[in-house]
Amino acid sequence: MDGFSVLKLLGQGAFGRALLVQPKNSEEKCVVKEIALPKTRAGVDRSRREAVLLARMQHPNIVAFRDAFEADGSLYIVMEFCGGGDLLHRIRQQKNVLFTEDVILKWFSQMCAGTLHVHDKRVLHRDLKSKNVFLTDNGTVKLGDFGSACVLNSAEGVAKSYVGTPYYVSPEVWDNKPYNNKSDVWSLGCVLYELCTLRHPFQARSWKSLILKVCRGSYDPLPQNLPYELHHLVKNMLKTNPRDRPSVRTILSSHRVSRLLRKHLPSQGSEVERRGRWRRQEGEAVSSFLGQKSLVVTTSSVEGMFQDDRRRRWSPGPPDTVLGVLGNAQVISSNSTTFSGESTSEGGDAPELQQGRRRKRWDRDPPERLLSLLEKAQLSTSFRTYTIHRPGTGPFVGPLSGENDDVVDGPEDVVTDESRLDPRSDDDDTDFEEDAPLDWLDGLEKIAMDP
Ligand SMILES: Nc1ncnc2c1ncn2[C@@H]1O[C@H](COP(=O)(O)OP(=O)(O)OP(=O)(O)O)[C@@H](O)[C@H]1O
């Protein structure tokens, strides 16, 4: 850090801290993200991947990569400073004053442009949320924090990377299906909803309530004064089946809302038509930048992850594994051992769960395991990327929770995605996904059980 004067600590994330710095050889203030390098080779490669991915993303709506280096057992990623702070902070500043339609469309269209660039590079962001969307001093929106796009392999890392930030996690991820480009679309839909209402679509004070609402696609309707196109878009982006959600390309090019969005992206219109590809040279360039041969290996393994264009088909049913058990509320007792026993003997859905067995993961670990884990865990009040504490450490508070948020788990006056029960539509647009659903339940268990 010799070449920088540290101006202030911006904050502490799950993987390290962010500092506002002044490089000694430049006028431009930057952010340095300091990540303590893990002891294992795999862990080190994983950490470096954030730098590699960020360096690959060169787009006006993505935080710009400036440099990366390692010193004293830490990785330092230098990036553009966004003086307007993050969008979550900006939303909170509004108090109860809703954003205008123009502001919503302008910011959201830029988020889509950034996400399209990410997806065109065959990368999944996996932690899109208002806290990871930044504003520059002149009001340009930039996507940041590619830390979750990089974390794979270790049990704990998998849990973090797979679950992301619980309020933004899509039904398929709760249902242990592979994360795909539409899971990013779901998270982006949550951010759009926040822009429209200043509230999160799935407010809840317990895990059970949160997962139920997400898997049912139940949220309060948008304000009536917003244009029909935005209502339609939110409804589409928060479809419980990823196949029914539009891709970001569709949102920007051929959705009912596209015309409104493109009006706010005059200089980037052509970008929508272009598809980027992962290029080995890019990884090599970053690798030599960081002075680490191993990054070439890391890069090519990421490349391999996305080269396979096979389209996996989704099971025909709704995300009914988690939903079925959660819906059967009477089987849930505060004692997880009792719960597991009761759910197989008297729970109405249990026999179906036993018979259905369509999904690989539940074959071995039915959702009872998830629920019993969730009973023992609570979300951190700071609401970082997947932070879980054992019981008694604080209330369940979401990023935009207010005083009067729901305290009950029962039915409410909400929009529910009834189409989750319809026959599935075409999934051509769900064009890539991670190769295999990773075992995040093991990671979750480890975190929840650690003394
Ligand atoms: N490029 C940036 N420009 C301005 N502020 C930034 C930038 N990057 C990060 N920050 C701010 O620095 C703080 C820490 O960010 P960091 O990404 O390390 O963790 P986090 O987002 O708080 O948590 P997590 O990543 O675990 O969800 C946040 O308040 C964030 O808004």
From TrEMBL:
Binding-site residues, ATP: 33
Region (Disordered): 335-365, 390-436
InterPro entries the record matches: Kinase-like_dom_sf (IPR011009), Prot_kinase_dom (IPR000719), Protein_kinase_ATP_BS (IPR017441), Ser-Thr/Tyr_kinase_cat_dom (IPR001245), Ser/Thr_kinase_AS (IPR008271)
Cofactor(s) in the UniProt record: Mg(2+)
Biased composition (Low complexity): 335-348
Ranges that cross the membrane: none
Positions with biased composition (Acidic residues): 403-416, 425-436
PROSITE patterns tied to this protein: PROTEIN_KINASE_ATP, PROTEIN_KINASE_DOM, PROTEIN_KINASE_ST
Enzyme Commission designation: 2.7.11.1
Protein name stated in the entry: non-specific serine/threonine protein kinase
SUPFAM superfamilies referenced in this protein's UniProt entry, alphabetically: Protein kinase-like (PK-like)
